[in-house]
């Protein structure tokens, strides 16, 4: 009871007025990282479509889809996504001194984990939606891949 009133006053005066601006600052790099994940998925699926249109090879298509499933674990390809979030390091330094925010690396690592999880979900959903169509008419496969990609991105 004796701590409640001073703690509420402290939060109301020293933290609450800054929350909106802090969240806006943090969301810039986070949004940018997730946008990069989306772009990477889009680019990889477009490459699968282009390769299939050139080769018209169903076996190679299946190999490319299998390779897409490893995308979330491909640190080289995911690196540009992760780098976007590393900008949080600089932003959080200011918060660390002003609000005693510690474990900055943990915040960045968790965000990167969520990005990897999002990519895992995207490629899994893609595979699940596309698999039944793999045996379809090869003339329609590229169109089907595009439709599935758009559905996943939605």
TrEMBL record:
Q: Which organism is it from?
A: Cnemophilus loriae
Q: Where is the signal peptide?
A: none
Q: What is this protein called?
A: NIBAN protein
Tell me where in this chain the Niban 1/2/3 domain is found.
9-154
Annotated PANTHER family: NIBAN FAMILY MEMBER, PROTEIN NIBAN 1
Pfam families for this protein: Niban2
UniProt record similarity statement: Belongs to the Niban family.
């Amino acid at each position: 009871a004796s701590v409640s009133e001073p703690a509420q006053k402290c939060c109301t005066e020293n933290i609450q007025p800054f929350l909106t601006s802090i969240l806006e600052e943090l969301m810039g790099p986070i949004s940018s990282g997730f946008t990069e994940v989306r772009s990477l998925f889009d680019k990889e699926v477009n490459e699968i479509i282009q390769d299939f249109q050139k080769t018209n090879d169903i076996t190679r298509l299946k190999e490319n889809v299998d390779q897409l499933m490893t995308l979330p674990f491909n640190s080289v390809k995911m690196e540009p996504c992760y780098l976007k979030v590393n900008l949080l390091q600089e932003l959080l330094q200011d918060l660390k001194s002003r609000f005693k925010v510690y474990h900055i690396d943990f915040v960045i690592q968790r965000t990167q984990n969520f990005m990897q999880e999002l990519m895992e979900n995207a490629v899994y959903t893609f595979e699940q939606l596309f698999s039944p169509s793999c045996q379809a008419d090869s003339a329609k496969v590229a169109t089907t891949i595009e439709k599935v990609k758009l559905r996943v991105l939605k």
